[in-house]
Amino acid sequence: MGPALSGPIFLRLAGSFLSEIAESLAERYCRLTTEPMSGAFFSNSGSEATEAAVKLARTYWLSTGQSQRYKVISRWQSYHGITMGALSWTGVTLRRKDFQPYLKESFHIPPAYCYRCWFGKSPGTCDLDCAGALEDAILAEGPETIAAFMAEPVVGTSISGAVPPYEYFTRIRQICDRYEVLYIADEVMTGAGRTGDVFFASDHFNAKPDIIAFGKGVGAGYYPLAGVLCNQLIIETISRGEGMYAASQSHSGHPLGMAAGHAVLDYVEKNEVLHQAAKTGAHLGRRLNELFEHPSVGDVRGLGMMWGIEFVRDRDKKLPYEPALSFHTRIYDAARSLGLLVLPSNGCNRGCDGDMVLFGPPLISTDEQIDQMVDILDRSISQVESETGMMPSNH
Ligand SMILES: Cc1ncc(COP(=O)(O)O)c(C=O)c1O
Question: Closest Cα to atom 8, ligand 1: which residue?
Fold first, then answer.
């Protein structure tokens, strides 16, 4: 890609109301990736953002005259949001099943999930079959019908904190390029510095997305701000072609949200939050790895300030707990009663069972606060282990 175009042209294409503050925030976001993006569009939730990202990919293909390209490939055990479109691309069986009749045709490939590799391989000795599965899916569906592949750089709640091997996204990018498929990075959870050092987690890998969906931390919880970024090729093609991008809602680019977005970026820059998150995140990772002293802790994985713990009743065999035991909610309840919030989830084992918690403390936490949080989690795990009688507690 060449240098960024000046100004967020995409906002004009969207036909939404413009304001100076929205244009300046769009421009600022476009420069947060190592290779600058060229267009931005704002929404009010991450679910709307992933849908806006897919609509953008579709509009791009319409602009090139390839109206047959509409399919979106995503991954099992991925989460892209709860609205019907976003839920169709989501690969969380437990969240999809009640609404299955309303979901659109969707195409899922296996996740990059080394702890429970779908191909029975181990990290470092595998051929990245999980990435190769994208090529199989593209070929089987017909490359001329595929609009985009969508994935979270580091998986959020559905495989709490799973980080792919470094080469995974390199291979994904090569496959996307080979078949001219757009790559959408869902950075709703991983963006805003969550993984440390970089604003968007895609920049940890050697695979630049064509479109990025963002949300959550960009408003720091003060305003429900979300949106999408896209590269120059998409902007130029949509500007030239027939495709009219129609995704705006009443409050897209609301000035209050734009002000919140600017304030967050001001704070992040002034206080070197990305650097701080990487530093404290390394401490957090070290401390969480100490939890392996608990027999129920099967895996600890993550990056920066985004870490997951997976619980098992037999570590050697990686046997999950009985779902009826709801081990993950027990951990959540125990931690909460001691003053710590963690995000519980289940179904990582092919949608059937498997208990996890995701740990995502504020990026400005100090090492001492992290120690306090991990100590509470430690005590909570001991409590649940002895409560359930499944494992002897060490404490
Ligand atoms: C990766 C990812 N995408 C999309 C969403 C949906 O965002 P929202 O809950 O703001 O609609 C989430 C929310 O957790 C998420 O983690």
Answer: 46
